[in-house]
Write a structure and sequence with these properties.
Ubiquitin-like (UB roll); Rossmann fold; nine-stranded mixed β-sheet; three-stranded mixed β-sheet; 12 strands; about 20% strand
Amino acid sequence: MTLPVEQRREWIRSRREQRKLTRRARLHRQALRYLVLAMLLAGGVAAFSYLPWNIRDANSQIEVHNNRVATSSQIRNALKTAVNQPLYQLDPEKLEDHVTDLGIIKQAFVRRYALPKRRLVVEVMEEFPWASFGTDPDKPTESVICESGRIVSASEFPKVVQPELKVYGPANLDLNAKDVSQWANWLNLISKQTNYPVQSVDMRNLQNVVVQDGDLNLRLGSPDTTLTRRLSRLSSLQPAIEPLKERVEYVDLGLDNNIPVKIAKKSDNSKFLREKLNSRL
């Protein structure tokens, strides 16, 4: 059955109008979605920008862990540039550099947290003091030498424990971790042979380093590659030195061929001692 022409035209016209209405409704829905999305984005940006993301109070919002020598206030003071700055703008690596500028801090790790509360968490690894350091044996030591070779003023770190071993040298004494390890081995070698702990090392003249070990004053000469061999002769010298120990001013270990011993007063024993020492070389 066929529809009359007029009815067919009317039906086609109504179908076109229906498609237009459907397309217009779909565009309205899309526009509404985009509008809501834009409003949400704008609200998120506004909330992110204007909500209190800043570190306001260093004492409560900067947490410090693992510090035993440097005080928490010293570490927080090193991070004072982070106060009143948006948390998301802080660079953890730069903050870590500020903390390691403190002499006793070897490494630092800084983490940022926004939830459940805004804060910075700082974990530190501190230097381990190896020896007390001074420039004059007649004055108290005011610094420490760390295992890394870094010299740190003890006055800046009131909780630092000054080691019993004392090292004297120029103010610009330059040591690194390898040097400290080598000196620790040499001093340990001396202590094992004499059964006394080394009390002090005078490095003010690196061509003639002087070590005080109990009652013995040892002149080591230059700390070169031959020093280990020269120090190893101490154990064989002990029996010869012991009878005159109170009168021995120093033992010179700076030479390869013999070991001069300075006696406080002239006596026949001094000649006997030199002959006995030379016979043990």
